[in-house]
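The methods section describes the discrete structure representation at length, but only in general terms. The central task, working out the structure tokens from the amino acid sequence alone, is never made concrete. Nothing conveys this as quickly as seeing an actual entry. For illustration, here is how one protein appears when written out as sequence plus structure tokens:
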Amino acid sequence: MDFSTYTGLRFERKPAGVLLITIDHHPEKYNPLDEQLHHDLGRVWLDIDADPETRVAVITGAGKAFSAGGDIEWEKNCVGNYGEVAIQMKAARAIVVNLASCDKPIISAINGPAAGGGLAVALMADISIMAAEAKVTDGHMRIGLAAGDHAALLWPLLCGMAKAKYYLLTADMIDGVEAERIGLVSKCVPRAEVLNEALALADRLANSPQTSLQWTKRSLNQWLLSALPIFDLSLAYEMLNWFGPDLPEGIAAFSEKRAPRFPSAGNPGLERGVA
């Protein structure tokens, strides 16, 4: 399999059919997703599923972060732009559906901050190893978007409805210790051990009976695939927010490092119009 067309991802083959994927896209900015990387993080799982040399994939981030989510300049270009939003919606859906449908086990090594689409990749992995010091947030509410990347589908299954609602409605940060405690990630270890832990587990799975491994994953992921209407609804609501009044203020506040003043939080007429 030729992975040379992926510019924001690095690939390294390890023994026993383990493939290490590193998100390496402006690591000094925490590996933000632009349109191309967003697209690539959806299609790569199709290539991995078809790659005869790969038994297990491990994905991590370069530098201090896993991926901080969407690049702010790309997001500014998407606001109110039907064509760009349609492209983004298709790519966001591909991340979730292709990760869930890939027969090869996928392990995420969450070495640092993860949010938005980056967090979708981290948590949609079959097994997630997270640094105790790392912090994650779905983050959509912070800029005025419905939680549509993956969370409405996945979080209630991982940590229960009560915790899912709390953290998705508040967009509070969650460190590795708390993420493991509530069941959001599989395991929490010190930052220095994250990648080694993930690779050791990948090696163990790569030396397991492959059809049994893949068919067990396929069976378990029917829980996710059967709930895809929930995901599609949440994704549609998120995309609708790209045409509303709150997102421009949310993006501006994020860029200016200030608290947002969302129009829908202070306009009674708009609030009454929310169905």
